[in-house]
C-alpha cells in the first residue's frame, strides 16, 4: 500500500541536500547513470551503486500496476473489514500478543504505543510476517517509477533511501525485495520511512524489517510515536491518535480497520 510519507524535506535530505532531480523519461541507462552519480554524492559507495544498478531494466508490470491504482477504497467499512479481520487472524494475533508479551511491554514503555495497535498493523500488512511481503527487487521497482515522469521526485527520493539501506548494511541487495511501490518488510515500510523511523531493537547493529520481529514492531511504534500517538488515549475516528495514524495511512477506512482489529485482539 502506497503511503503518504514523501515530504519534500525528506527527499532533499536523502539526496544530500540537493533539490535537483535527475531528468525523468528519455534514455533509461542515462537516467540510471544520473541516479548513480547522485547517490554517490549523497554518500553511497560506488560498490553499492554498481551492484544495485548492474543489468537493471525497467519493469513494465510495475508501471502498469501504478497506472491502475487509485489509492482509494471502494468498499464500505463493513465490507472491507470483513475481508481483513476474521476469526483466524484475530486468534493468530492474540497468540502473538502472548508470545511476544515481554517484547511488546518494552516497546510500550519506550514508545508509548499499545501492543494491540502494533499487532493489528502487523497482521493487516503481512499476516504477521507470514503473508506476502512482495517479491520484486526494490531497486528495479523504484528506478522504474523514478524514471517515469508522473512522480519522479517522489520516487527518486525513495530510490536514494533504498540505496542507503544497503549502504548502512541493514539489508543486502538480495534481501531488498518488496511490493509494487517499493514497500519493504513485515509492516511494509517505504525506504524513506525505513531510514527515518527504523529502530535496531534487537541490538544486532542492523535495522532488519524483513526478519527481526523486534525491529519490525519497534520501528512501527517509533513511526506512530514520532507522529503524535499517545499511550492511554483513544484511537477511534476523530481522536488525536486516529489523526496520528494518518502518517501510516491516509485512508479513514484503513485506520478504522486498524482500530477495530486492535479492539478485537484485546476482547473489546
First CA to last CA: what distance?
27 Å
Which overall shape is indicated by the principal axes computed on the Cα atoms? globular
The portion of residues forming beta strands comes to: under 5%
**What is the element string, with H for helices and E for strands?**
HHHHHHHHEHHEHHHH
| pLDDT < 50 stretches | 1-19
Global structural class:
mainly alpha
Question: What does this protein look like?
Answer:
By secondary structure, this protein is an all-alpha fold. The protein is 56% helix and 1% strand. The protein is built from 14 helices and two strands; from the N terminus they run ααααααααβααβαααα. A two-stranded antiparallel sheet has the order 1-2. It is globular. The protein starts with 7 loop residues before the first helix and ends with a helix. The N terminus is likely disordered.
How is the topology of this model organized?
Layout: H1 8-14, H2 28-41, H3 46-53, H4 60-68, H5 77-84, H6 87-99, H7 101-111, H8 115-126, E1 136-137, H9 138-147, H10 152-168, E2 177-178, H11 191-197, H12 213-226, H13 240-244, H14 252-265
Antiparallel strand pairs: 1-2
Helix pairs in contact: 1-10, 2-3, 5-14, 6-8, 7-12, 8-12, 8-14, 9-10, 10-11, 11-12
Keywords:
single chain, 268 residues, mainly alpha, two-stranded antiparallel sheet, 56% helix, disordered N terminus
